[in-house]
Write a structure and sequence with these properties.
Pfam families: ABC_tran (PF00005). The two termini are about 35 Å apart. Strand 7 (about 160-165), helix 6 (about 170-185) and strand 8 (about 190-195) form a beta-alpha-beta unit. It is built from nine helices and ten strands. It has helices at about 40-45, 70-80, 95-105, 115-125, 140-155, 170-185, 200-205, 225-230, 235-245; strands at about 1-10, 15-25, 30-35, 55-60, 65, 80-85, 160-165, 190-195, 210-215, 215-220. The protein has one domain (about 1-245): P-loop containing nucleotide triphosphate hydrolases (Rossmann fold, 3-Layer(aba) Sandwich). With about 250 residues, the protein is α/β, with parallel strands linked by helices. About 40% of the residues lie in helices and about 25% in strands. The longest helix is centred in the last third of the chain and has 16 residues, at about 170-185. The strands form two sheets. The protein has a six-stranded mixed beta sheet with strand order 6-7-8-3-9-10, with helices on both faces. A four-stranded antiparallel beta sheet has the order 2-1-4-5, with helices on one face.
Length: about 250
């Protein structure tokens, strides 16, 4: 469904992504793990065209082109078929939960307001926040704000939803409510690519785990492959360190 080959990205001569290739199939829940600075967030932002990659090829939603040759129509097509859940929510502070969701539908998708509100309410129901539809972000907890962010992505009915460390800005007691929503989406067959430090989610919800370090995919496989039988020394060291601190 989504195929990335040889994706490269650098900043000021510093190469961040060093030729990443990735296949995402319908219904996949892929967790990307690895140390800070390994290029995980950059990878998501380049796949979704929030940033322009320096090299590589993408096949997705009828687009089959080099990243550097994507035209405005290609970029629009890619963006229309992905959802993105940001680490820091990225909600409009002057809009209610409902309005945060309808904004993209009305402006980007040209959906009529009444239909957009219907879709938004259904999305809020899915994340357990229909009773907070008229609340502004300042009236919501961090976990609730992130659930609105997930509802916003879901409402667009994308082929793939990308999550960039969706729980890292949350207080520990709020993490569970967001992970529960994500687990429910996975159970419903939603295709998801998740950058995460939540090893239990990666282990128990994903069907594929990717370990990145230093701009490369070091190792990938099933959760059992990665967590029980990692073959690369770098993967073994990372898991030993991070699981020792759980």
């Amino acid at each position: 469904m989504l195929k990335i080959e040889g994706l490269k990205k650098g900043y000021d001569g510093n190469e961040i992504l060093k030729g990443i290739s990735l296949d995402v199939n319908k219904g996949d829940v892929i967790s990307i793990i690895g140390p800070s600075g390994s290029g995980k967030t950059t990878l998501l932002r380049n796949i979704t065209t929030l940033e322009q990659a320096d090299g590589g090829h993408i096949q997705f939603a009828g687009v089959d082109n080099d990243f550097q040759k994507l035209n405005s129509k290609d970029i629009q097509t890619i963006r229309r078929n992905v959802g993105f859940v940001f680490q820091n929510y990225n909600l409009f502070n002057n809009k209610t939960a409902l309005q945060n969701i309808t904004e993209g539908l009305i402006v980007a998708r040209k959906v009529k307001k009444r239909e957009a509100e219907k879709i938004a309410l259904e999305a809020l129901e899915r994340v357990g926040l229909s009773d907070r539809r008229n609340h502004y972000p300042s009236q919501l907890s961090g976990g609730q704000q992130q659930r609105v962010g997930i509802a916003r992505a879901v409402a667009l009915n994308p082929q793939v939803i990308f999550f960039d460390e969706p729980t890292s800005a949350l207080d520990p007691e709020l993490v569970g409510e967001v992970l529960k929503v994500m687990r429910n989406l996975a159970d419903e067959g939603t295709t998801m690519v998740v950058v995460t430090h939540q090893m239990n989610f990666a282990r128990n919800v994903s069907n594929k785990v990717i370990f990145m370090a230093d701009g490369y995919i070091v190792e990938q496989g099933s959760p059992e492959d990665i967590f029980e039988h990692p073959s690369e020394k770098r993967t073994q060291e990372f898991l030993t360190d991070i699981l020792a601190n759980v």
